[in-house]
Each structure stands twice: as C-alpha cells, then as structure tokens.
Recover the amino acids of this structure.
C-alpha cells in the first residue's frame, strides 16, 4: 500500500494547498510559451518535487505522468562503464547525476546533448522543447555544472532544464545567471495542519486538531516528515487523543540517547560506547551531517546557556570537516570528544581554551 | 528563382549586420525564445558597456588581421556574444559555418580530443565565398580573412594538461587559424597560453548603457516598470546583464499573470490601463532575485544585539531556523548580514575585526558545501558574541 505521502500527492498546480502565489507564477510561466530554465531551491520536505511535477503537467498535460524507467550505460574517457537510471515520459526526462559521483559530467554532457539534438517525437506536443529535471543539482561537481553552461544557451529551442536543489550556495555563478531562481519555502505549521486535516479526512481518521498541531511542530516544518508521523501515530493507535505520543523514527531516538549519554558522563569509556552507536547509525545510511546536526539540536535544550555557542561552534567546525575529509566517523567522534572536554571545562569553571 | 533567394539572403544578412545600437525587433518566429537569447547582440555595435574592447575589435575588423585572443570577465557580460558577433561580421552567415569552430565545456575536452578536433578543423581547406557577382557582393560586406577561428569557450574548465597541449597546436597552425579563449577566471589559464593572446577584460555592467539596454528591451516587449526597477535589476544582478534580463522577463510574466487575474475578476468592468497592478514593482524584482526582505534581516540583527532579555542562543536560534525553513539561501543571508554590520557605524572597530573573521570562515565553509543551517547559526552566534564583547 502506498504511503500517505505518495497517495495524496496533489497532481496539478490548482490542487497544491499552500504558496498560492508561487503556483500562479509557475502556471503563468508554463502558459507563456517562453518558459525559462529554472533553479528550484528550498529545504527538503517543502514540496519542490510535487510542485515541479504539477508544473510539468501544466506544460504538457496529463501525458507527462506516463513514465518509464530506463537503465542506460555511459562510457567514461577511461573506458569505465557507468550504469545510470533515467525516468522519462514522452515529454521530459528526470535524472539524478549525483548517483554516479564524480562521473556526473559524462552523463550530463552526453545525455543533454542527445536530448537537445533530437526533436520532440510527439508532434502534437504542447511545447517544442523537452524538459530535463535534474535532482540534487547542488551535488553536481563543478565540472558537470560547467558542462551545462553553453548547452543551456545553445540548445534553448529544444531543451529546458529544471534544477532542484536545497540551496543555491553550491551552484556556480554562470549557472545561476542562466536560470530563473525559484524559492520554495517550507510550509508553516498552520499550513501543515491544513494538509493533515485534508489527508486525515480522506483516510477516515478521527480529527484531532491538538494532535495535528503537535505533529506540525515536531516536524520542523517538513511536510514529508509530518505526514510520515501522522501515518505512524494512526497506525500504532486505535484511538488517538491530544496526548498520544508521537513516535520518533528509530534513528532519532538513538541520537537522543547519545545526547543523554554524553551529557551524563565524560570518559573515554563513554566515547567507546557512543562510537558503537554512531557506527550503527552510519550503517543504516543516516548521513553523517544529519547525525551531527540532530545530535547538536538534541543537546541544546539540555545544556547550560553559557555552553551553547561553544557547542554550535564545534558542531559547525566538524560538520565542515565531514564535508572535506574522507572518514566521517573521525569527525563525529571528534565532536563527541570535544563536547565532553568543553562541558568538563565548564563544570570546573575554566575558560574554554581551544587547544588544551 | 535563385536570384530571388539571393536577395532575400543578403537582405537578411544586411539586417543582421545593420549596426543599430538598439535591440532588434522581435519577429513572430522568435517570440517564444527566452529574452536573453532573443536579445543576444547580433553585431559588435549591439554589445553594451564594453567600449574599450569593442573599439579595439572594430579596428581589427577593418584590418582583418586578428591576433589570438583571450576574453575574460564575470558571467553575463557579453564574452560569448561578442566573439559570435565578431565571427559573423568577419565571415557572414554562409562562411561562418565552415570557418568557425566552437568548443565549450559541454564538449569532451581531454588532451587528445582537443588536439584531434583542432587538427582536423585546421587542416580542412579554407572555404571561399561563392564565385561570381554574388561572391563579390558578399566580399564587400564581409572581409572573409584567410584564416579560421577556433573558439574555446569556458576555457577555464580545461585541464592544465589540455591547455599545455594546446600551446603546440596553436603554433603549428598559427598561419591559418586564430584562437579565441574565453573564461571567467583568467588565473585558470596557464601563463604560456595567456601570454600568446591579446587579452580583453569584460567589465561588470553597472553603467547607464546597461540600463538603457534593459529599458529598450522593456519597451520592445511592452512592459512597464515603476521607478527604480531598472536600478534594482542592475543591483540584484550584480553586473550580470543576462541575469538582469532573466529577472526582467520573469517579473514581466508575473505582472502579466496579475493583469489576467484582474481581468477575470472584474470581467466586464473597465480595467484601468494605467493601473499600477500592471507595472513591474521593485519588490517583485527583489523577490525574484532572492533578496531577503528588510524586516527579516532586521529580525536577525535584533536577535544578535546584546540585550538583557533571554539567553543569546534562545534569541538567535529560532530566527535562524525560520530563515532556513523559508528557504533563504545561506550565501544571501551572509551577504546581507555582512552589509548591515559593516555599514553600521555604532559597532566598534575592534568588534568588527573579530566579526569579519567569522564571515570569512563562513563564506569558505559554504563554498565547501558545509551545512547551511549550522554555518549561519554558528556565524550569528559568533557575531552576537563579539557584539556582547565576550
Ligand atoms: N555587453 C552586453 N551587451 C548586450 N547584451 C549583453 C551583454 N552582456 C550580456 N548580454 C546579454 O546576456 C546574454 C549572455 O551574454 P553572453 O553569453 O555573451 O555572456 P558571457 O560573458 O559569455 O557569460 P558566461 O561567462 O556565463 O559564459 C546575452 O544573450 C545578452 O542578452
Ligand atoms: Mg559564455
């Protein structure tokens, strides 16, 4: 059975339940005929993908929803073969080049040129151009981004790109210059409540505004999370009331435990115990950044005010290292050790000294 | 019959070559193009704000003797457009197909490939203008100098090795080819290559000419703007004319959409043609450009000020969490916060010194792809710390 998240996904721009001005704007772009390249950015769970799928429908009609998935093989200059999945309809393609890591340039080069040089097969198509949706565009290597530049200009009669990203900071200036930036803010807590109410009605859940409000708050304005929690609460309880506990995902519960562990005891033995838990999270594919961030925000309400800035400082410091380094566990562990030292120093009434 | 076509072709060529400083009138056929392509300069005279470069190039056009060239400058300042216009004016619409090779970052450009493609192209016999009177006419209009041009656009993404390989190739075929390298960062081009070229710097577009160009486009597209829109476009685009034009186009779409809505609402009622609803507004441009509204930034500024109420973290963290949820780009937050703090005279220099170091670190981390939420939270807390003098 489909998850709630997918089951009640709105399919047209009209059906989207928040950011109505943005929907209007996308619709007018779709109808204008001179649809630009887009760079859609915003936090995850804000509904970027849903909005884009709806925009595609406004561009081409329901035909874009007939999709197939192909696996293609690309060859690098060093003759390595890369397998790569492409989701496509008659009118558009969707790719996630970060799947092939540093070889993304090859895929982008070959595939986009191929699309750009072939005409629309469906002569009755509403647009002359095909759209290529690029997921996780902020993870594209610089090389791959550079490869997009002239392609975006030269083939603009046949090709439009929609880049999806969490942020624009990692998109190189020449690409930002070639796209229209569209920001998709996360829905507010009230907007999330509205969605929950609607979905709940369709599912025949008993309405409980208080509970829904709590879920919205707990979700951190992430609609996907909110819907998952909403479904979990109702799946696990016959009857819900305003006090029904909202079960956090397992991994989050484990991180909360780590937070308590390292606040309670500042010893090498404790670091060792925590290491096992960190490994556990990593083997379950929780990204290191998520672990570090969640841990930091779980620590905050439980530590002394005077410590908070210092802990954030080291969290940001080690997150940067996670990004730059090669062994994420080193930096997670280093953060844990640093946290213990800083807390210890604070307890003894010492000043923070960066290198003791 | 063939004569008929000739005249048409020449007329078209002449039209393309016609040195009007205005943007060309839109025709039905390109109505649906993005404006940046529609208004790409067709001749050197159309290129705005690069007066020095254009004067020099126009001179070379007369003498028809081109050096190897290196164009560099920020995005959207006219580098690609200029070289394409130059080539068109040198060779005309026919010859350009066989005399000019354009390679850019979307082509495979390893050492061997560059060498081979360039070699093959350079070796090809020089094509000539058509014979007979038509040819003479053609020659009168276009100098058609006896060499080919190889454009290496976006050359800064070529590897060092590929660049050094190019050195030899350039020399080997220098009699019959000219190279034009284009890049954003001149330092990425190896010295031996750069020193073989005449360098042309393309400046950011901040002056009246760029404004004029935007106004012309707006006029041709029948969009009206409230006062200050052009200035805002230029400011938000940071000297990138392509960006400014894209902003203008989408702002125009936005206004168009509103006008449509208004019509639907009022239906039979008379729609006030001069109504402000149909003008592009300054705020709509800012919104499109991703500029954070003043009051949002002010909220953050207030949160980082030392004040008696509540702990620092408790004041700053929710503001940052909101900004992240609203989707504001961290780079934008950093830039706007920086401007506010550096411009603020009531902050002591000693504090500013500490603060600018935090900004430097944050900028580097963001470029490295560090988590945006943690980075700007950390930055704001450091700023707050410095302001509180702790
Ligand atoms: N100096 C200029 N005069 C007139 N139009 C310009 C100028 N610079 C940029 N434009 C506009 O911006 C568009 C892009 O310009 P162009 O492709 O020449 O930029 P570029 O310098 O090659 O940028 P990049 O470094 O990103 O490749 C043009 O199509 C044109 O509409
Ligand atoms: Mg260019």
């Amino acid at each position: 059975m489909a998850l709630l998240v997918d089951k009640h996904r709105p399919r047209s721009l009209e059906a989207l339940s928040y950011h109505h001005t943005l929907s209007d704007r996308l619709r007018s772009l779709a109808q204008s005929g001179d649809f630009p390249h887009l760079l859609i950015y915003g936090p995850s769970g804000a509904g970027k993908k849903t909005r884009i799928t709806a925009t595609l429908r406004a561009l081409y009609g329901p035909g874009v929803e007939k999709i197939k998935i192909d696996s293609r093989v690309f060859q690098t200059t060093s003759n390595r073969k890369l397998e790569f999945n492409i989701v496509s309809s008659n009118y558009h393609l969707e790719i996630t080049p970060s799947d092939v890591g540093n070889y993304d340039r090859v895929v982008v080069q070959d595939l986009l040129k191929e699309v750009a040089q072939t005409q629309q097969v469906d002569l009755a198509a509403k647009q002359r151009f095909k759209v290529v949706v690029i997921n996780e565009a902020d993870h594209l290597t610089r090389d791959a981004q550079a490869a997009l530049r002239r392609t975006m200009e030269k083939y603009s009669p046949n090709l439009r790109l929609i880049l999806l990203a969490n942020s624009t900071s990692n998109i190189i200036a020449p690409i930002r210059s070639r796209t229209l930036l569209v920001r998709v803010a996360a829905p507010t807590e009230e907007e999330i409540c509205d969605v929950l109410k609607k979905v709940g009605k369709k599912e025949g859940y008993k309405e409980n505004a208080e509970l829904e409000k709590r879920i919205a708050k707990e979700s951190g304005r992430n609609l996907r999370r909110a819907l998952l929690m909403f479904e979990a609460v109702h799946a696990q309880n016959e009857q819900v009331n305003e006090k029904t506990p909202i079960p956090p995902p397992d991994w989050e519960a484990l991180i909360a435990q780590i937070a308590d562990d390292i606040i309670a005891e500042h010893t090498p033995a404790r670091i060792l115990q925590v290491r096992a838990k960190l490994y556990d999270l990593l083997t379950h594919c929780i990204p290191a950044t998520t672990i570090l961030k969640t841990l930091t925000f779980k620590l905050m309400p439980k530590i002394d005010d005077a410590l908070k800035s210092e802990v954030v400082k080291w969290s940001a410091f080690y997150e940067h290292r996670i990004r730059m380094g090669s062994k994420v566990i080193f930096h997670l562990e280093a953060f844990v050790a640093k946290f213990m030292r800083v807390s210890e120093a604070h307890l003894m009434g010492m000043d923070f000294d960066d290198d003791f | 019959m063939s004569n008929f076509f000739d005249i048409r072709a020449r007329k078209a060529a002449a039209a393309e070559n016609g040195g009007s400083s205005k943007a060309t009138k839109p025709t039905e056929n390109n109505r649906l193009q993005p404006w940046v392509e529609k208004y790409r300069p067709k001749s050197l005279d159309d290129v705005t704000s690069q007066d020095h470069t254009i004067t020099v190039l126009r001179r070379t056009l007369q003498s028809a003797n081109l050096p190897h060239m290196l164009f560099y400058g920020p995005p959207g300042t006219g580098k690609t457009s200029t070289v394409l216009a130059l080539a068109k004016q040198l060779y005309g619409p026919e010859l350009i197909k066989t005399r000019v090779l354009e390679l850019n970052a979307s082509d495979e450009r390893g050492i061997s490939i560059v060498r081979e493609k360039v070699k093959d192209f350079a070796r090809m016999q020089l094509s000539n203008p058509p014979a007979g009177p038509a040819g003479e006419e053609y020659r009168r209009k276009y100098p058609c100098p006896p060499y080919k041009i190889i454009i290496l656009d976006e050359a800064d993404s070529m590897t060092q090795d590929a660049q050094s390989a190019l050195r030899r190739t350039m020399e080997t075929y220098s009699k019959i080819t000219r190279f034009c390298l284009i890049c954003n960062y001149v330092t990425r081009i190896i010295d031996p290559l750069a020193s073989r070229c005449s360098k042309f710097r393309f400046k950011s577009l901040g002056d009246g000419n760029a404004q004029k160009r935007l106004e012309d486009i707006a006029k041709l597209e029948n969009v009206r703007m409230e006062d200050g829109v052009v200035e805002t476009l230029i400011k938000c685009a940071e000297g990138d004319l392509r960006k400014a034009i894209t902003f203008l186009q989408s702002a125009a779409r936005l206004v168009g959409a509103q006008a449509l809505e208004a019509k639907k609402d009022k239906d039979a009622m008379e729609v006030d043609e001069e109504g402000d609803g149909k003008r592009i507004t300054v705020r709509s441009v800012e919104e499109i450009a991703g500029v954070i509204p003043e009051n949002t930034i002010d909220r953050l500024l207030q949160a980082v000020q030392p004040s008696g109420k509540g702990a620092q973290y408790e004041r700053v963290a929710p503001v940052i969490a909101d900004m992240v949820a609203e989707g504001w780009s961290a780079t934008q937050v950093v830039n706007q916060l920086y401007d506010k703090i550096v411009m603020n005279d009531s902050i002591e220099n000693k504090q500013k010194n500490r603060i600018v170091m935090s900004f430097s670190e944050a900028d580097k981390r963001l470029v490295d792809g560090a988590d945006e939420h943690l980075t700007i939270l950390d930055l704001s807390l450091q700023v707050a710390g410095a302001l509180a003098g702790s």
About this structure: Chain B touches chain A through 68 residues (CB under 8 Å). The longest helix of chain B spans residues 241-266.
